[in-house]
Sequence to fold (256 residues):
Amino acid sequence: MSAPFPIIRDADRVRRLAALPDVRPRALERLREGAVGVVGVGGLGTAAAPYLAAAGVGKIRLIDPDVVHATDLGRQILYGPGDVGRPKVEAAAAALGIQAPATVVEAVVARLGADNGAGLLAGLDVIVDGLDDGRPRDWLNAYAVETGTPVVFGGALGYEGQVVVVAPSGPCLHCLFGSVADAAADCAREGVLGPLVGVIGSFQAAEALKLLMGLGTPLRGRLLQIDLFGGGIRVLPFAPRPGCAVCGGQGVPRRG
Ligand SMILES: [Zn+2]
Fold:
């Protein structure tokens, strides 16, 4: 009996990536050895995760407490009608398993919080924020400051979205916004343009890949803002805020 799929060699999967300037063999090894957490597998997470898997990231840990709803299908393109009612992490893990069988995908049905966060994120090299709730973002920012684990924050609402990286030697999210505990995005009330989450999630995937491979300039200390209504994009630099309640105005310390 023949195999159901042709054997895809690792070298073939990453050939276009490997052809890029600055991508050295060691960078590809770091991808294969790397572990990325995707916290929240909604619009942003379902956009980011497939690019991470496609690029050959060794391990992806999906964390989300929710099931797929029919109202998700207009923008969370990893899911189909048959997934409605299924835990998002299970449906997403199944899709990623077909897309990139060599990537280890861990599906964790859980809501990230102060009580379980450190355990859920243990062993991860980079974290992608796909949350739609402010309170766990505050915790995630504090975790980045405390542990030096880079977090790629993203948000999308209406026609506008933003991306920023909190990583060693850069300011933290609290330096920029203060507490975001009450700044939950209410897509149900305000709506969201489907491709917006794809754009923001793709930016987040690119930042995560860059951080893993040590490539380019991360969006650290720079807030990327995208407006799909008017068709605009801008980047706003910001510095550690003196007296910041989370990083003390010192930014994120270097690891080790
Ligand atoms: Zn700070």
About this structure: The chain has one domain: 12-71+80-237. The chain has a mean pLDDT of 94. Residues 4 and 98 are 11 Å apart (CA to CA).
